[in-house]
Structures are given as structure tokens and as C-alpha cells.
Amino acid sequence: MYIFTIDPENRITAHAKSIHVPKGESQFADPKGLARLAGDWPGARLVEIWNKLPDTKKLLRFTNRKTAVDRIWSVVQSLQPSPSSAKAMPKSNPFGTRDGTKAARMIALLSRSSGATLTEIMAETGWQAHSVRGFISGHLSRRLGLGIKSFKNGGERTYRIVRGATA
Known about the structure:
2 domains
């Protein structure tokens, strides 16, 4: 089963898996989800969506909203995900985290040759010290298998990713 998105230009795209939906787009996976979305739309939008679907006879109007949703759903099920639809997911860095997340930003800090101090990490993430330490121990070391070196540098706790080592 696919996930479908509708963009602001009323184009429907199929995706093989759930994606991050950009602002202004809607997502649905079944006829009930489509019906919920369509409940607030004017009939003209449903006609426009229908007319943009491939291999459909162009219409001026539908008899009613239920008919519109049923007909759109029947055509949408035959859509196949395009290879470019995979690009909709935020790309991952080599460590398996999505770019732009706090985890990715923390990994970038820890990847520096000098590492990052606990204070720097707290400032970057907005987390308290115990949360930073827990994330390093639980997520980075155990879950991602990264080797993390912890040492004191000028009296301040510093962490660094050790290349080639795993926890």
C-alpha cells in the first residue's frame, strides 16, 4: 500500500513509504483519509484534482462529494511511486540520522578533531547536561555504535567521535 500526497497545485503523487510532508501539502493512505481531506475543499478543487490525474476523461463537475472521492480513489490506487519521490525524505548523513536534526548537529560537533565540550553541545541542542550524556551513551554509543571518547580538556568535559572504533 502506498502513501499519497496532494500538493498545492492539486497534483497527487504516490510514495512507497511515509514521507515528510512539506508545508501546504496533504497526505492520505486510504479512501477515508482522502474523504477527510476533501471534506473542507470546494467541489472545484476535486474536479481539478480529477482532471490532473493520468488517463481520465476531463469533467466539469461531480454529482456529489462522495462520488468525487470514490472516483479519485479508484484512479489513485493505480499510481506508482516515481523514483524521484524517494527524494522527498530528508537525506541522511553517513551516521544514519536525518540532516538538520539535533542528533545530526551533535554528530557534526563531535566529529571535529577537537570534539565538543559539554557546554557547546548543551548550547547547540538546548538540552540539559544529563540529557546530553544520556543521548551520547544511549543513542550514539549503543544504538548507532559510534565510538565516543570522553576526556577533560582544560577542566571541561569534552566528547569526540573516534573514527574506526565502535562502542
